[in-house]
Amino acid sequence: MPTIGFLSTALYDEYLIQLMSGAQEAATQNGCNFIGLVSHGQHAFLKMASARRFDGLVFPTHYLCWNKTLPQVSEYVRSYNVPAVSIGIALEGVPSVTIDNSTGFYAQVVHLIKDHGFRKFAFFAGPTWNPEAEVRLAAFRRALADHNVPYDPSLHYFTEWGHRQAEGLIAQLLASGKKPDAIVCSNDQQACDALHALAAHGLKVPRDFAVVGFDDAAESKHASPPLTTVRQPIFELGGTAVNLLRRMLNGETVPAETRLDTVFIVRQSCGCLPVDVKQAVTNWRMERGTSRELESARAKVVSETQTLFNLPESDHTLKWANELFDAFTSNLTSDATQVFVNVLDQMARGDSEGEDRDLLVWQAMISIIRRNVLPLIPEREQILKAENLFHQGRVIVASATALSIVMKSRRAGMYLWKLMADNEQLSACDSVETFLNVFSSTLQYIGVERCYVVLSRNREFGGEGEVLFEFHKHHGKQPAESRVFNMEEVVPRDMLADPFNVIVQPIFSRTGLLGYIVIEMEAFYPQVMLDVRRQCSMSLNSVVMLREMKEQNYKLEAEIKARQEIEKELEFRAFHDALTKLPNRALFLDRLRQAQALAERKNDFIFAVLFVDLDGFKRANDSLGHEAGDEILIGAATRLRGCVRSVDTLARLGGDEFTILLHDIRSKEDAAVVAQRVLEELSRPFTIKGQTPAISASIGIALNDGNAPSDMILQNADVAMYRAKNAGKGRFAFFGDRVL
Q1: Alpha-carbon gap, residue 573 to 575, rounded angstroms
Q2: Class of residue 234 by CB neighbours under 10 A (exposed 0-12, middle 13-18, buried 19+)
C-alpha cells in the first residue's frame, strides 16, 4: 500500500488543518497510507520525508518556502526525490493544484463598488514574494480601474499573512487620518485581526468601515460581524492534490496545473444581510405546482445546498437533502404528520453526536426547501401545514445545535480535565516507566488509536532513532522493542502496519531535537493532538533530563572510582616493588621510622630488623636467565610472607635483598625464631625450568638500640648479614653478637 506524506508547518493554522483533512480523506479513499509531518517551525524536521518511507508528497508550498523565489521553491520540492504535488503555487516541473485567486476577489470588490457605492478603499496586501498575493492585488486594482475608482497608493499596506499582523496596519491607518469606506484584506486572517483591532479602538463594522477578506476560514463565519469573503475550496485542494499524486503513482500523466474555482460569500461585514436570511424570503405565486415542478424544486434544493456549502458530489449531505425533500413532500401529500420532523431530527441529532459538522447546514436547507416548494402550494391549509413543519424543523435544528455545543463543550472539558490531572502526575514522574504508564492512560481516555514516541539518538534531524513507547487502543501500552532504526522510516515498518493514518510532530529539548510523537486517532482533532504533544514534550523532557542526569552521575561516579583506582595504583607503585608487590625501600623506611618513634615513647617497646640476602641467586640468574631469576624472587617473597605476622613488614629493597620489620617482640629470641624459620623456608629447593638451583639465605638482625636513627638500624642489620654470609652462608647473626 503506497504511503502519501503531507508536509505542514503547524496544527493550529485553520488553512493547513483543512488542507490536511482533505488530503487524509482522499488518501483513505485511494487506498493509501497517510503521514502528516508537522514541523512546528523547524523545517529541517520535514527532511525525514524520504523515499525510504514515502511514495509521494504533498506540499502546501507557500507555507514551506517562505521568502524564496519560484526557482528556489521548485528546487526545494525536487530535493526530496519523490513524486510530489504543490498546493497553492504553480511550480515548473511539479504538478500543482491552485485556485482562481482573481475571479472571486474581483467580484467582491465590484460588489463593494456597485452594491454599496464605495469609492475609497484601503488595501491590506499579502507578502510580495507570494504569487497568490500578487494575483489578488492585480484583481483589486483591475476592479477599481474597470469602474473608474481611483487607486490611492497611500492606503496600500503590505504585511505577511500571519496572526495579528493586521493590528499594526489598523493603527497606521487610523493615525493617518484618512477614512476609507472599506478595508479590503487579501486573506481572512488579516480581516479577522482587523475586526478585532477596530473593535479595540471603539469602531463598528460595517457602520464605520466595511471589511472583507479571502479564504472563508472557520473563524470568518463566526466573527463579529460575520465576514464577507471569498471562499476557496481548501478541503478540496488537499483532496485533489492526493488524487493527482495517486494517479502519478499509477503511472498516469497528470496536468501541470489544476485550478479550482472560488465563490464570493456575502455576510454582514460589508453591510449586507447574510445569505441564510435572504434565503428565508419566498417569492409567491398562487398556482398549484406540478409533479415536474416539484422534481425541478428537488434538483434546485440539492444544487443550492451544494453551492452554498461548496460540497463535493460524494458528500452525504446531498443525499440527506434528497431524503429531507422527500419527507417534506410526503407530509404534504399524505395524512402522515411526523415524517419530516422525524427524519430531520434523526439527521440533525445524529450529526450533532457524530461528525463535527456545522449544523447551520440544516437551517439553510430548511430555508432552501421553503423557498423552492412553498410557491408551489396554493391551498391555505397546506401552506399553514408547511409553515408549521418549517417552524418545527427550525426548533429541531436549534435543539440539535444546543446539544452539539453542550456535547463538544463537555468533551473538551473532560479532555482538559484529564490532561490537567495527568499533567500533575507527569510533572512528578521520576522514571521513563512512570511516564509511560501515566501517558498511556491519557491516550486511552482521549481515544487515540495508536501512538509511538521515538527518541533521536544524536539529538539531530535525521539519523538514528529508538522507539521509547508504543501504544495501541485495544492492547494498551506495549513494551517498545529496544532496537535502533533510521528515522526516515518514521516508525519501523513491522511496528506500524498498513493501513495507517498518522500525524507526526517533533519534540524539542533546549539543546535540539529530542524526538517525535506519532499519533493516530479515529477523527482528526488538531487541538487534542497539539495538547498530547505538549504534554508528552514537557514530561519526556523532564524524564529524559532525569535519566541523563542519572547517567551522568553514573559516569561521574565511574570516573571518580577509576581515578581513585589510578591514584591507588600510583600510590601502590610508589611504595611497592613492581615484581614481588612487596613494600619497597621507601615504605619500609617509613614503617621503620614509625616503629622507632613508638619505641621512643614506650620504653618496653622492642622491634627488630632482619636483612635477608639470597645466597646463590646471582649464579642462578646468570645461568638460567632473568625470567628464571624473577621466578626465584617471586617464590622467595611468597615463602617469606608465610614467615611473618600481619603486623610485621616484609619488603624488597632491591636485587636479591629483602628486609623484615618485626613489630613489638618480647626479646631477641623472638627474632631468632623468625630468622630460623626464614632460613628453613628459603633452603627448600626452587624448581625453575626443570632445574633446582642451590638457593639459601644469609640474615643479619639488628634490634632497636636507644636513640639510634632508623637508617642506622637498617645499616646495622646489613652489617650483621655480611658477617653471617662471610661465616659460611645459610645462617643468621645479630649485630654485635657472634654468628649463629
Answers
A1: 5
A2: buried
- pLDDT for 669 equals 93
pLDDT for residue 731: 92
Helix (H) or strand (E) holding 230: strand 229-231
The DSSP secondary structure of 633-692, one letter per residue, reads: HHHHHHHHHTTS-TTSEEEEEETTEEEEEE-S-SSHHHHHHHHHHHHHHHHSPP-BTTB-
Distance CA 26, CA 3 (A): 12
Note whether 563 and 631 are within 8 A (CB). no
Identify the residue with better confidence: 353 or 316. Answer: 316
What share of the chain in percent tops pLDDT 90? 41
* Helices first, then strands: H and E counts in the chain: 22, 23
Q: How far is 582 from 627, CA to CA, in rounded Å?
A: 18
Nearest Cα residue to 68 out of 129, 127, 125: 129
For residues 541 and 386, what is the distance between their CA atoms, to the nearest angstrom?
63
Mention every residue, 6+ apart, whose C-beta is less than 8 A from residue 589: 710, 711, 714
Q: What is the DSSP string of 115-183?
A: TT----EEEEE--TT-HHHHHHHHHHHHHHHHTTPPP-GGGEEE--SSTTHHHHHHHHHHHHT---SEE
First to last CA, the chain: 100
Are the beta carbons of 244 and 56 closer than 8 angstroms?
Answer: no
pTM > 0.90: yes or no: no
Q: Which helix (H) or strand (E) holds 17?
A: helix 14-29
Task: Give the number of other CB atoms < 10 A from CB of residue 489.
Answer: 16
- Give which of 428, 425, 431, 333 is closest to 385, Cα–Cα: 333
Q: What is the pLDDT of residue 658?
A: 96
Has residue 276 got a pLDDT over 70?
no
Name, in order, each residue with C-beta under 8 angstroms of 39's C-beta and a sequence gap of 6 or more. 7, 8, 9, 10, 45, 46, 506
Q: Are 86 and 70 in contact (CB under 8 A)?
A: no
Poorest-confidence range of 60-74, 172-186, 590-604, 686-700? 60-74
Bridge pairing between strands 512-521 and 448-456: antiparallel
| Cα(660)–Cα(643) distance, integer angstroms | 10
Amino acid in position 199 = A
Q: What is the rounded CA–CA span in Å between residue 548 and residue 427?
A: 17
